[in-house]
């Protein structure tokens, strides 16, 4: 079965610990990934070459990989260079995701997309708008994700939950639709599927223990 068919109808667990927190270590990321697969994840999203190298030998589900970098003069963070895309493919990424918004970053968006495809991986476009997805699909991206909706100047203030309208807008474009971003409960994941997603990626609600704990801690504190 090809990679997209393996992901279709499934959950992707994004194993990205809180930056510089106690769980931000390759062996812990690899353990989270194996636990997620044991729980039924059809795929994984992994950040960083070291974390990918630590995880790849232990799982055989498709891995969507990214490198995040803080740039001095751009808010774009996700796979901002051709070199990062190539390093991820070399470390075993099946799919490389990149920031598909038109915002400037180190290397041009379309050159990063072309490098992913030339390297033999599938490309996942992390989009904020329908226009981002259209441009990505025209350039050969296999997957369009709603990942960046709510995280750009144009889309900020999108609310708490997932961008179901953007999922619906992607449905007719012809690519594989990944719902991603602020999907914090199984019910929201189901809603994203019903809105037309081919698969759903969940991160913080599964693998950022500080965030999940904080939600419970607040609820308990404010209960009475
Ligand atoms: C906007 C951005 O940088 N998103 C990142 C992309 O990799 C991650 O920080 C998110 O955790 C991931 O997209 C999953 O989303 P959520 O954690 O909401 O389930």
Automatic annotation (TrEMBL):
User: Keyword Transcription regulation on this protein?
Assistant: no
Keyword list, A-Z: Carbohydrate metabolism, Isomerase
What is a single molecular function from GO for this protein?
Answer: N-acylmannosamine kinase activity
The record's section on InterPro entries has: Aldolase_TIM (IPR013785), NanE (IPR007260), RibuloseP-bd_barrel (IPR011060)
Enzyme Commission number, as recorded: 5.1.3.9
Which reaction is catalysed here?
A: an N-acyl-D-mannosamine + ATP = an N-acyl-D-mannosamine 6-phosphate + ADP + H(+); an N-acyl-D-glucosamine 6-phosphate = an N-acyl-D-mannosamine 6-phosphate
Q: Write out the pathway annotation from the protein's UniProt entry.
A: Amino-sugar metabolism; N-acetylneuraminate degradation; D-fructose 6-phosphate from N-acetylneuraminate: step 3/5; Amino-sugar metabolism; N-acetylneuraminate degradation; D-fructose 6-phosphate from N-acetylneuraminate: step 2/5
The UniProt record lists the keyword Isomerase: yes
Q: What is this protein called?
A: Putative N-acetylmannosamine-6-phosphate 2-epimerase
Organism this protein belongs to = Maritimibacter fusiformis
The organism's taxonomy opens as: Bacteria, Pseudomonadati, Pseudomonadota, Alphaproteobacteria, Rhodobacterales
